[in-house]
Amino acid sequence: MPSSPNKGRIGVLLVNLGTPDSPQTGDVRRYLNEFLTDGRVVDMPAAIRYPLFRGLVVPLRAPKSAKIYQQLWTDRGSPLLFHGLDLQKLVQEKLGKDYLVAFGMRYQNPSIEKALEELRDAAVERIIVLPLFPQYASASTGSVQEKVMEIVSKWWVVPSISFISNFVDEPGFIETFATLGKAEMEKHDYDHVVFSYHGIPERHVLKGSLNGHCKLGSCCASYNKNNRYCYRAQCFETSRQLGKALGLTPEQYTTTFQSRLQSRLRDPWLQPYTDEVIKEYPAKGINSVLAFSPAFVADCLETTIEVGEEFKEMFEEAGGKHWQLVPSLNTHPQWVDAVAGMIQRN
Ligand SMILES: C=CC1=C(C)c2cc3[nH]c(cc4nc(cc5[nH]c(cc1n2)c(C)c5CCC(=O)O)C(CCC(=O)O)=C4C)c(C)c3C=C
Ligand SMILES: [Fe+2]
Ligand SMILES: [Fe+2]
User: What does the similarity note say (predicted)?
Assistant: First the structure.
C-alpha cells in the first residue's frame, strides 16, 4: 500500500491471554484474580463469583500455580509474553511503515489499554484487532473484544475497528503446524496423533449456539453457517485441516480437550478429556503419540507443562513408550507471514 500524506498508518493490535508478572505467589494471585473474576471465563453471577474466587478458589490455587509457573519461567520470563513481543516485532518488520503493530495482554501486562493508547497517540487511521486464539471462545476472543470495546467506548473519538474473530482454517496457521509436525514425524514413527485443545465448560458452547443448533453431538461434525462461532465445531475443523495437511486418515488422529478447572461432576467440560483418553492408549496398542496443542499459537503453561510434561508422565505411567509435543508456532517465519497476511487481507 503506498504511503500518502493524507493516509494514516493502520494500527494493529495483537492480543494474547495474559500471564503473571513473575512466578511468585503474589503475582500469580493478582493474575488469577483478574482472570477468574472475568464473567466471560467464570459465568456465575458477580455477587457469587467475586467472593468465591477472590476469597477461596484463587488463594488456594495461587501457590500451586506459582510452583508450575516457576518450572515454566525462563531467563526471558514467561514464554507467552516473550513470544508475543517477538511476534509483534517481526510482524511490524514484515508489514512495514504503513502499519503500526502493538501487543497487549487481556490480563495483567502489557495491558490492552496501554497498547490501544500507543495506537491512538500515533493517530492511526483504523485499528485491526487480532486476538491470538485460533478458535473463537467467549472466554478468550470474546473477552478481548469486550475489553477493547470497553476501552475505546470511553474515548472522545472512537476509531474504526475491526476484529479477526478466529483463524480456524487459515492456510498459513495450518501449514506452519504441519511443517512443525512433519519435522517430528521424520524423526520418529508414531502410532497416533492427538490434537489437544483447551477445554471450556459445555455450558459455554450451548450458550453460544446459534438458534439452538449445537447439541454437543454430531452437529459440530462439519463447520458451516449454523455453527460458525461454535468453539467445538471450530476445534474439529482445525483438526480436519491439520489431519489433511499431515496426510493422516481420520482414524490416525483424535481430538481431545484439556485444562478443565472445576470438577467434572458439577460442571462438565468439553469431552473427551485428554488425560482420560491417553491413559487408555497403551492397552489399545498405541505406544507412541505425537501431540499438538492447536488452541495456542505460542508455547505457554498449557503446552509446555501440561501437554509436554504432565501428559507425557501420565502416558508413560500407563505403559506408553514415546510421547512428543509439537512446539507451538511462536515466531516461525511461516507463521509471521501468515499473521501479516491475515492483517493485509482485513
Ligand atoms: C485457547 C484459549 C483459551 C481459552 C478458551 C481458555 C479458557 C479458560 N481457561 C481457564 C482457566 C485457566 N487457564 C489458564 C491458563 C491459560 N489459558 C489460556 C488460554 C485459554 N483459556 C492460556 C494461553 C493460558 C496460559 C497462560 C500462561 O501464562 O502461560 C489458567 C492459569 C494456569 C493455572 O492456574 O492452571 C487457568 C486457571 C478457564 C476457567 C477457561 C474457560 C472457562
Ligand atoms: Fe485457560
Ligand atoms: Fe456446535
Answer: Belongs to the ferrochelatase family.
Q: Tens of pLDDT along 111-131?
A: 999 999 999 999 999 999 999
For the residues 225-243, what does the mean pLDDT come to?
96
* Most informative mutation of 259, 293, 296 for ligand 1 (most atoms within 8 A of CB): 259
Residues 178 and 320 in one domain: yes
Q: How far is the CA of 132 from the centre of ligand 1 (A)?
A: 13
CA angle 122, 127, 129 (to 5 degrees): 125
ipTM of the shown complex = 0.97
User: 3 in a domain, yes or no?
Assistant: no
Quote the domain boundaries for residue 55.
10-167+333-345
pLDDT of residue 267: 86
Q: Are 81 and 17 in contact (CB under 8 A)?
A: no
Please enumerate in sequence order all residues whose Cβ is within 8 A of that of 163, keeping only pairs 6 or more positions apart, or say none: 128, 129, 131, 145, 148
Note the pLDDT of residue 323: 98
Q: Answer whether residue 101 shows pLDDT above 50.
A: yes
Give domain status of residue 338, yes or no: yes
